[in-house]
Amino acid sequence: MPKVSMTVNGKAVSGNIDSRTLLVQFLRETLRLTGTHVGCDTSQCGCCVVHVNGTAIKSCTTLALSHEGANVTTIEGLAHDGKLHPMQEAFRENHGLQCGFCTPGMIMTAVDIVNRKGNKLDEQTIRHELEGNICRCTGYHNIVKAVAAGAEAMAK
Amino acid sequence: MSATGIGASVRRKEDLRFITGRGQYTDDVNRAGQSYAVFVRSPHAHAVVLKIDATTARAMPGVLAVLTGEDIAADKIGGLICGWMIHSKDGSAMKAGGHPALAQGKVRYVGDHVAVVIGETFAQARDAAEKVQVDYEVLTAVVDMNAAVKPGAPVIHDVAENNTVYNWHLGDKAATDAAFAKAKHVTKLDIVNNRLVPNAMETRAAVGDYEPGTESFTLYTTSQNPHVARLVISAFIGVAPEHKLRVIAPDVGGGFGSKIFIYAEEVVCVWAAKKVGRPVKWTADRTEAFLCDAHGRDHITHAELALDENGRTTGLRVHTKANLGAYLSTFSSSVPTYLYAPLLSGQYNIPAIYAEVDGIYTNTAPVDAYRGAGRPEATFVVERLIEVAARETHTDPVKFRQKNFITSFPHQTPVIMAYDAGNYDASLQKALAMADYKNIGKRKAASESAGKLRGIGISAYIEACGIAPSAAVGSLGAGVGLWESAEVRVNPIGTVEILTGSHSHGQGHETTFAQLVSDRLGIPIDNVSIVHGDTDKVQMGMGTYGSRSGAVGMSAIVKALDKVEAKAKKVAGFCMEASDKDIEFKDGKFTVKGTDKSMDFGSVALQAYIAHKFSGQDLEPGLKESAFWDPTNFTFPAGVHICEVEIDPETGVTHIDRWTAVDDFGMVINPMIVEGQVHGGIAQGIGQALCEAAVYDSKGQLITASFMDYCMPRADDLPSYNVGMTQTPCPSNPLGIKGCGEAGAIAAPPALINAITDALGTENVPMPATPQTVWRLAQKKVMKHAAQ
């Protein structure tokens, strides 16, 4: 089995994997980082969003081997030194989650939106940018509020 | 009100693990030596299984076993059950066909379970599953209900003639016919309530484990009611007796009803774990979820409303065909009967109601409870009829509703329910004000001048929640009682664990239940933890569905807390040398009446365990009490939703401009969480009305089996919601709670369709009202306008 090496949440990791192993499977099964979820198999729901070299991608639709040497951040790597990331804090403060299953992907996407669009986000922009993330619980109302608040908090 | 007590929008205790990726969902569970199950599923909607040849598959690398219906029958593992008996109007019992966990002789829908391959790795199991050769004799499938009941239609189950499970009815036919004979006006509607897929974001999953040293099984599963799962898998399916079967439903990623039921896959995983001597894990992919999770709704209804000369509703007559799919799922029989017809009175005085419901088998996935379960279907019938009747009689829909509202309580409807409390006009008035209803004319004119069509729609819904008094549901055919249990364990230093039979899969019980305990015992909310979802920890429970956890689950906690307080007073009495009758408990302090002698809750807890002060007396050490709460009535949440849309006749796109919701849920523990429930329910209701539909082709292939094909509402399809509340406390439980989980999904579809039909000037728009459908109708309106 081929070997893959990458940096995940700041740590060098490697594993010998079946060549068809998806990035999400490598994270969940090999590294046991189960915060990244799988909600569909068609790149639609966004439960599996992680950052690869600073950009949000859907880890369910990409082979682990294609990320040799990459720098990957998952939901587990977002908080630093025991301090939550402002976007994590904003989701909690604004009740932007219910069952929590889509939440890691939502938060990773939200951080990416801020990285691309800045810290002042209007409702329409947020709703449009969330088109690749499905939530079945919240009706998005509080997620939209959370992303806006998290974006502002990230500027501080 | 304290910052963490009843009525406070406390931030959720469970969120920390979810926002940091440390939730523990079933697929996150990994057992030492775990193997993986992949199911071989029927590609045909209706076929005889002639032969299964697994020779090649068994020889493939990593394959531990290939198991079929023969193996499960040889081990005397029983079939899946339907736990609610419905009798037809002729008195005969419903016609329930067998439902084996792995097919025995026949398959009846695409996705039906034929065999299971268990492999060392998921990839090996999947590769081998593709090599299991199954010979089928394909039979003609029937997916349309009208075709299914015709003589000569394909027979799905031999026991069910004309594929009919039951012809059930409710109400007084003669009185209703008499009301129609005298009616001044009759409004008639033909309604299709579209078939939906619940689509919790976490797909179903199971990990079965067997410990030969103790001959005991453990099943981790995505369940809304792990105790019911254990009961069914033990008592009816016979995998293991209850004391040898532990069912754990850890963090569960949404349910919406679909995770109430006991499905084939979890039964197979726990059975196979012993068979192969290894833990067995299965996780559904999204297409498996579409194919095999129980679907929702799927009714065809003809409904008629009778009015007298004053525009008062005098009679309602309904005939519904309900698609139950290929097998009867766990509670499926009750959904289009007792969860549907008893709600047909809505918020209105309707003296005579008669409903007939035909439950029908088709070669489609089983249909069972989905958020609202019968009540959205009933509300859609009532609120569409009321709206159309108002328009046909040229009456303002607000005035029409007000004229017919029930205004005095208790109110006995002609269809079982005794509404205990409510103030329907209060919710209506508040919603009208919040929606700025009085200026709708101006907004319509502004839209018209911009070439757009604006419409407004009202939905005044009622639901029956707090399910339910055990004797009442027993008399209606339920095989179980619907009480709830709670245990309060006070630890020696005064921290508290609450063990509840309710199950949280997004509802926030770890917070709301802790608020109740913190409020009641006067202790910090961080000193309270909520334990649920494990049959080895919580003795028994009925789980979470039907908006019951507040009204029923928390009532059980209140009852157990009463007992804790009573015992703690006795302990405090011994410690402070007073009678327990002279001890007062307030704000976490036990005080001897009229004195300054007092002890805090933690000190009394410690004394209860060290027992020095009452050793040898008639008082046991310790502080732990349990209770079961059996409701005395259903609860009746009700409210008014108002939807305002603007349609672009050029594209057919319906833009929801405003959504106003005013709900009466009785007393509210955590307004933030309750509003969140309302938002989510509305979104699912909007999904039903605007975009979602499960579609089978004529051969029974599900052509909407992924998120590419089944339109889930996304953030930019939905508006922000303007949510308000009114409160009439529920008289039948100690906290006055009615329940809030399903209201939005019940209220939303008719509000939206009433708004779209208002904009288009037509009386019927099918759901989902996709842009294509709306565009066609909008073009008709535009052409008509131009012709004039």
CATH architecture of the largest domain in chain A: Roll
Order of helices and strands of chain A: EEHEEEHHHH
Q: Report the count of strand segments of chain B.
A: 28
Largest interface in this structure: A-B, 56 and 58 residues
The fraction of residues assigned to DSSP E strands of chain B is 15-25%
Q: What is the rounded distance between the termini of chain B?
A: 62 Å
C-alpha geometry of chain B: globular
- Give me the CATH fold name of the largest domain in chain A: Ubiquitin-like (UB roll)
Figure out the total of helices of chain B.
20
Query: From the helix content, strand content and strand pairing of chain B, which structural class follows?
Result: alpha+beta
Number of discrete domains of chain A:
2
Explain what the structure shows.
- The complex is a heterodimer of chains A (about 160) and B (about 800).
- Chain A is α+β, with helices and mostly antiparallel strands and about 160 residues long.
- Chain A has helices at about 25-30, 85-95, 105-115, 125-130, 140-155, and strands at about 5-10, 10-15, 50, 55-60, 70-75.
- Chain A folds into two domains: about 5-75, Beta-grasp domain (Ubiquitin-like (UB roll)), CATH 3.10.20.30; about 85-155, [2Fe-2S]-binding domain (DNA polymerase, domain 1).
- Chain A has a five-stranded mixed sheet with strand order 2-1-5-3-4, with helices on both faces.
- The relative contact order of chain A is 0.17.
- Chain B has about 800 residues and is of the alpha+beta class.
- In chain B, helix 10 (about 375-390) runs parallel beside helix 19 (about 745-760), helix 15 (about 510-520) packs parallel to helix 16 (about 550-575) and helix 18 crosses helix 19.
- At the A-B interface, helix 2, helix 3, helix 4 and helix 5 of A face helix 1 and helix 18 of B.
